[in-house]
């Protein structure tokens, strides 16, 4: 059965670039953020708009307006997650079904808050993307519109990087450049591809 590798990491750690490296090496990647973006233009529009009036624009969810409504409000965030997470899980199961049918030896679930939401149980192993805190902050603060207050609010929702590293089966260090990170991605694929995994089997049985 297809081996499911979870990929996660805190903001600014280089997770998106690492996921792209897995794709470039031929490993299918399910991007939870991309799934949410698609849902905000489709199936999630009506229920999210009902829960948070005024967050739509041109028939889609306005992510900036929604962020202003929920960031820093734990109750609002939980209400949003209760709507969106089941829809993302369904998209993830569709992805796994296709990978299993195609005989893929390894797939990657790219999930920003994997540990925070208990998502490691949906994976056979977890890789955490990491970098020193100073590198992380430099990357994040260079983003357009980022403020110290917003950065700290995002960090407050995320498990500490040190704790993620302790819980990971594998840590990918992105502070040493793209070539070093790519070598670590290739090593991960060699280590896990072709191993018999249970996560995909459980997910597909859950759907059935």
UniProtKB/TrEMBL annotation:
Where does it live in the cell?
Cytoplasm
EC code(s) of this entry: 2.7.1.24
Superkingdom in the source lineage: Bacteria
- Broad enzyme group: transferase
Which annotated residues bind ATP?
A: 12-17
Q: Which reaction does it catalyse?
A: 3'-dephospho-CoA + ATP = ADP + CoA + H(+)
Q: Any keyword Membrane?
A: no
Q: What is its pathway?
A: Cofactor biosynthesis; coenzyme A biosynthesis; CoA from (R)-pantothenate: step 5/5
- Keywords, sorted A to Z: ATP-binding, Coenzyme A biosynthesis, Cytoplasm, Kinase, Nucleotide-binding, Transferase
MF GO annotations: dephospho-CoA kinase activity
PANTHER family (alphabetical): BIFUNCTIONAL COENZYME A SYNTHASE-RELATED, DEPHOSPHO-COA KINASE-RELATED
Q: Explain the purpose of this protein.
A: Catalyzes the phosphorylation of the 3'-hydroxyl group of dephosphocoenzyme A to form coenzyme A.
Provide the family line.
Belongs to the CoaE family.
User: This chain belongs to which protein, by name?
Assistant: Dephospho-CoA kinase
